[in-house]
Amino acid sequence: MEGLGTSHAAEIARLEDELARSRAMAERARQLIESAPDAIVVVDNGGRIVLINAQTERLFGYARAELIGQSIEMLVPQQLRGDHVGKRNAYIGKPSVRPMGTGLDLAGQRKDGSQVPIEISLSPLGNGDSVLISAAIRDITERRAAQAALRQARDELELRVRERTAELEQANRALQTEMEDRAAAERALHQAQKMEAVGQLTGGIAHDFNNLLTVVMGNLQLLARRVHNDPTAAELIKGALDAAWRGAELNRRLLAFSRKQRLAPVPLDLNDLIAGMTSLLRRSLGEHINIKLHEAVDLPPALADVTQLESALLNLAVNSRDAMPEGGTLTIETGAVSLDEHYAALEGDVKPGAYVMLAVSDTGCGMPPEVVQRAFDPFFTTKETGKGSGLGLAMVYGFVKQSGGHVKIYSEPGTGTTVKIFLPIIARPAGALPADAPAPRPDASGSETILVVEDEDKVRELVCRVLGGLGYRILQAPEGRTALALLAQEPGIDLLFTDVVLPGGMNGPEIARRARQQRPDLKLLYTSGYTGNALLELEAIPGEFRMISKPYRIEDLAQIVREVLDTGPA
Which residues are annotated with the PTM 4-aspartylphosphate (predicted)? Predict the structure, then answer.
């Protein structure tokens, strides 16, 4: 009996020891749960909360007593509670240790109704009917903020990279444009230097040749006096003198090209000069050439040598006659123009400023680019042997340059030729408005879409830069097929600005005709090196049209574009 009592006491002691250890373990577990950085929520298989820690109270704003015994859906956003019940029951049916909602944006609902982004890890506790589910809930607000800040920083970095890339691309384009402009300027300078060198050479030769001709012609005249009784000898001497005079005329043209002839520049009215030459021109050109005059009103006076200008005009008219063997129309036009810095930079040897323009246009066969390039070279001619000296245009070039002016040829095979002479305008009296300082104009900016069709790269780039800088949206094409493709792709084009003469078998008027079949309201503006009156004679453009002639000032381009856009279809 005494042994039984001793055994019973030992068992009680063992049980008390195990109970103490269990309580200690439970206390350590409670402390671990309470000190956990995540909110810990334990629910039974009915979804009721049976245990929470202090972090749960802090995260959701509830007191412990408010949550114990309540449904876990109390912590789920209102709109998601119905779905959550089904998902909870499915998990309790097959519990496992896993994160919940991987790849999804989970949120818990606080007592005040606000939501907090969370991350949940689930763990089953116990077996059988007494299964419990432990949920470790982590507040990821700071992580989300850090991720958002990281995304923003990444986006800003990408934006800066794109901006920097765009800046580099723009700088590269600007450098490319500058290099191309410099190359064009170098070509223009080379051409000017070549013409200057040839001029110096021909001037020196002409000077020496004049001395030789003086001796030859003087001796022939003296000899003629001695043999006046010998008809045969007199006839031979006359033939020699005629040839010497022709040589002197060629020499005069060489001196004109070399800019070493004596000029007597005076103020003159181009319209009056042309009117005084009309009869001579009609006799020189013949009845098969129709002459049309288009004289500007209130034309300012030019400064030039009258005799040399008359000779230049006659030379141009005769060249035009030779280009129209079957007949045609010669158009002579005058006007006041201003050549700006952009045009001067492209040409290389032009001073920006105000000029009086004399344009001579024909409806002849025209010239290819390689012929235009050499047209002013002395002794260069495309005429048959014996039909021309090749000094006509060279003389015009030398005279104009010596006069401080500029001369430009516009020509395409099959579309005739226009030669424009620009002579300096006489300075106006003090207080008068200079020709290159027009009155203030209304705002010429806009936001419309303009299609620029121009085969000359430099001109097209300049136009796009100018109009783009005014706020217009610019599309561009170097020829007709590309232009029509853009017109089909871009229904929002407001204005077609096209050169009249284009390569590829489709000119500006044909582009306009096809475009207006689909878009009758499309605004239209032409440009050309030919004058508008010359184009009428070529019948290049049917009906009425708006046009700006090359060269033009960028202010004039901006103004006429705005005018065309503000009016009905041209």
Answer: 499
In this model, does residue 380 exceed pLDDT 80?
no
265-424 fold: Heat Shock Protein 90 (3.30.565)
Contact 425, 300 (CB under 8 A): yes
Q: How far apart are CA 12 and CA 473, in angstroms?
A: 97
Is residue 328 classed exposed, middle or buried when 0-12, 13-18 and 19+ CB atoms within 10 A define those classes?
A: buried
C-alpha 180 chain-centroid distance:
14
Q: Where are the domains of the chain?
A: 1-31, 36-139, 145-257, 265-424, 449-566
pLDDT value of position 340: 83
pLDDT score recorded for residue 63: 92
> pTM of the entire structure?
0.49
CA-CA distance, 545 to 511, in Å (whole number)?
Answer: 14
- The structure tokens listed for 172 are 């590269």
- Cα dihedral sign for 276, 280, 282, 285? negative
Tokens of 211: 């001395």
**H/E stretch holding 190:** helix 141-226
Which of 409, 376, 411 lies closest to 538, judged by CA?
A: 411
Q: Residue 477: how many CB atoms within 10 A of its CB?
A: 21
- Ramachandran quadrant class, 103 (left: phi over 0; alpha: psi -120 to 50; beta: rest): left
How many Å is the Cα radius of gyration of the chain? 47
Q: Distance of alpha carbon 436 from its chain centroid, rounded? A: 26
233-257 tens-digit pLDDT: 888 888 887 777 767 666 665 555 4
> Which residue, 309, 303, 557, 526, is CA-closest to 441?
557
Beta-strand relationship, 495-499 and 523-528: parallel
Q: Which two tokens stand for residue 80?
A: 């998601």
Q: Is domain 449-566 given the CATH code 3.40.50.2300 in the classification?
A: yes
CA 416/CA 410 separation, integer angstroms = 9
